[in-house]
Amino acid sequence: MLFLKLERGRKMQTQELKQGINDSIPIVLGYLPLGFAFGVLATDVGMSIVQATMMSVLCFTGAGQYIAIGVLQAGGAVFTIILANVLVNLRYLLFSTSLVPYLKGHVPTATGSILSYGLTDETYAVAMNRYQQHAPTASYMAGLNLSSHTGWIASTLLGAILGSYIGDTDRLGLGFTLPAMYICLLVLMIRNKPDVIVALSSAFICLLIGYLMPATMANMFNIIIATIAAASLGVFISERK
């Protein structure tokens, strides 16, 4: 009897791991051109192949890594890169906090904390979409997050290796890949009228902040402010239903 339970548990973990990997495929396909372009730009500013690849291993934040490249190109200080990354990536604090009610009681805290290192905008959206119908598991998180991270690292390595053979990445149309991927993820998350209201509100707030504030400050704070404001609106709408 115990053997059968263990066998069922092992099969379930394997299925969850495979499902996580399968769900990561669209994310990995979106990461390929972005990571590739980052690898090209990283070598262009003087990074070695190892440095560019290790940056993707240790940081794993597309926006933050591109910011780092921009600061390096402008001759900025390392402190500026660190501060900008902290501000831009504060949204992950909100993301991880919103996952806690789903993970609690299903995924051990230590395991969830380690696997959350792979949390990105894309993996968050895919995971939240699944958690509406299925209980979270460590195996699913591992399949989703680790596969996505591996795809990002591999594409960075490829871009860094081939960087010397490519000039202008903009002519390849890679710049629109990230917005296109975000649009697809947003569509997957919208299920009813309140979701539409929250999505449109957050977009409007982002644009408003970008218009009213200097570009540098807007780029650092608009996502955080818009997220908090739109999430508060979502809670208010939910309580009124």
TrEMBL record:
Topology term for the membrane: Multi-pass membrane protein
Residues passing through the membrane, by range: 21-43, 63-88, 149-166, 172-190, 197-214, 220-238
Pfam families: AzlC
A cellular-component GO term for this protein: plasma membrane
Subcellular location: Cell membrane
Keywords on record: Cell membrane, Membrane, Transmembrane, Transmembrane helix, Transport
Keyword Chloroplast assigned: no
Keyword Protein transport: no
Top-level taxon: Bacteria
GO biological process: L-valine transmembrane transport
PANTHER family assigned: INNER MEMBRANE PROTEIN YGAZ (PTHR34979)
Family: Belongs to the AzlC family.
Name listed for the protein in its UniProt record: 4-azaleucine resistance transporter AzlC
High-level lineage: Bacteria, Bacillati, Bacillota, Clostridia, Eubacteriales
